[in-house]
User: Fold this.
Amino acid sequence: EVQLVESGGSLVQPGGSLKLSCVASGFTFSNYWMDWVRQTPGKSLEWIGEINTDGSKTNYAPSIKDRFTISRDNAKSTLYLQMSNVKSDDTAIYYCTRSYVMDAWGQGASVTVSS
Amino acid sequence: DIQMTQSPASLSASLGETVTIECRASEDIYNGLAWYQQKPGKSPQLLIYNANSLHTGVPSRFSGSGSGTQYSLKINSLQSEDVASYFCQQYYNYPNTFGAGTKLELK
Assistant:
């Protein structure tokens, strides 16, 4: 069974940093591009970015503006999202997904940005 | 960015009814479109990809159609378990973008 499990969500102060992890199982992680998507309290979905199979290429949404970095460790079947200089607008549920046609989603990690 | 305009924002329908949800892209997305279902408190799940291909395990009462800038999701014979929010997503061009969602309730 394909599974994605996020962790690392928490309350963080504006301007702070946070790193989310997503552990994959049930499929060959190194064969798939992986994406991050977030869902705001208003329930809309926003694509954050993606990473290719070996981690050498990433694409990001312009709205992220170099504040977030996606990486992966294929030996650990783990995807990461490093968030820096966070703002209140970054408050959301963060999901890792398999590929841009998102045929698998994690349960989500809750990030709240507040002082 | 390609804007995805989804309608209606909410919808109330009876069991057994046929329901249609639409998405309009701000430019041609050449069938690079997916539909997702999100039940309350759960993560979204893929229903349709490439505008009209049914994802594995999805009931055949769900279908997708369209081309160019206009796409639709149809649910035949509405079941109680179909109560959910539905989102379209274009992946033809970066950045991938989503519609605002349609909340489907039972009448």
About this structure: The two ends of chain A are 40 Å apart (CA to CA). Strands of chain A lie at 3-7, 11-12, 18-25, 34-39, 45-51, 58-60, 68-73, 78-83, 92-98, 109-113.
